[in-house]
């Protein structure tokens, strides 16, 4: 057994197999991470806001966890495999990563895994990514030497933008979501709408001490 393990260790440390093994490990890590993230979230949200029997709720939790894990694993597999292919297609310097390889690999993976699916879990993942991308782009927009208008942003202006960007972003985000929830709630994603109904709409109704403080309804 020790000899077999030693041979396997030698095999997986072979530099020629490193690209292929990195793809497999990327898929493995995507599956594990997706499970860790989705399981507790689905457990809480489904048991709090979904109706049904205990068995039905458990099934929903595991289905959501499996879906999230599968999406991240598949995306990681496609992304890392595409990066390997693009490196080898680099006509200028074969085997070297190009400046925009990650963009095109992400574009392919994003379309194949998330772009062709409209399920709630896929949408939640894309919403999460989109919000982080917008924040990152806003940060890059005021960095020196990032675009033709960068020289117009002085260090003093940049400092003021950094100091005020988050308060403005947070305030406008909540102002807009509350306005949309008040007048166009059907346009919000169902999980967000459910939580907001629970906090802001259900709190307007009670008929006894029991459902004023101890139970929602």
Number of distinct helices:
8
- Rg (C-alpha, Å): 24 Å
**Shape, please?**
flat
Head-to-tail CA distance between termini: 61 Å
Helix content: over 70%
Organism: Penicillium chermesinum
Transmembrane segments: 125-142, 162-184
Protein name: Peroxisomal membrane protein 4
Keywords: Membrane, Transmembrane, Transmembrane helix
Task: Describe what you observe in this structure.
The model has no long low-confidence stretch (mean pLDDT 91). The protein has eight helices and no strands. The protein is an all-alpha fold. Helix 3 runs antiparallel to helix 4. It has a domain of 119 residues. The longest helix has 36 residues. InterPro entries: Pmp4 (IPR019531).
Characteristic key phrases:
0% strand, 8 helices, 217 residues, transmembrane helix, mainly alpha, membrane, flat
Task: List the topology elements.
Elements: H1 2-12, H2 18-49, H3 54-89, H4 101-115, H5 120-141, H6 155-183, H7 190-201, H8 210-214
Keywords: Membrane, Transmembrane, Transmembrane helix
Protein name: Peroxisomal membrane protein 4
Transmembrane segments: 125-142, 162-184
Q: What is the compact description of this entry?
A:
By secondary structure, the chain is mainly alpha-helical. Helices cover 75% and strands 0% of the residues.
């Amino acid at each position: 057994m020790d000899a077999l393990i030693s041979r396997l260790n030698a095999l997986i440390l072979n530099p020629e197999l490193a690209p292929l093994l990195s793809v497999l490990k990327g898929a493995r890590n995507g599956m594990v991470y997706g499970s860790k993230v989705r399981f507790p979230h689905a457990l809480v949200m489904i048991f709090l806001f979904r109706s049904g029997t205990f068995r039905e709720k458990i099934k929903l939790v595991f289905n959501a966890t499996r879906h999230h894990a599968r999406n991240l694993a598949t995306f990681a597999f496609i992304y890392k495999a595409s990066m390997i292919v693009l490196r080898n297609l680099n006509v200028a310097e074969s085997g070297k990563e190009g400046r925009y390889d990650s963009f095109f690999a992400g574009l392919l993976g994003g379309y194949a895994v998330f772009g062709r699916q409209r399920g709630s879990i896929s949408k939640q993942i894309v919403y999460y990514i989109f919000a982080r991308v917008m924040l990152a782009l806003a940060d890059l927009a005021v960095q020196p030497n990032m675009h033709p208008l960068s020289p117009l942003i002085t260090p003093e202006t940049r400092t003021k933008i950094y100091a005020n960007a988050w308060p403005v972003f947070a305030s406008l985000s909540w102002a807009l979501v509350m306005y949309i929830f008040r007048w166009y709630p059907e346009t919000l994603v169902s999980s967000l709408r459910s939580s907001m109904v629970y906090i802001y709409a259900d709190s307007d109704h009670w008929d006894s001490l029991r459902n004023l403080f101890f139970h929602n309804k």
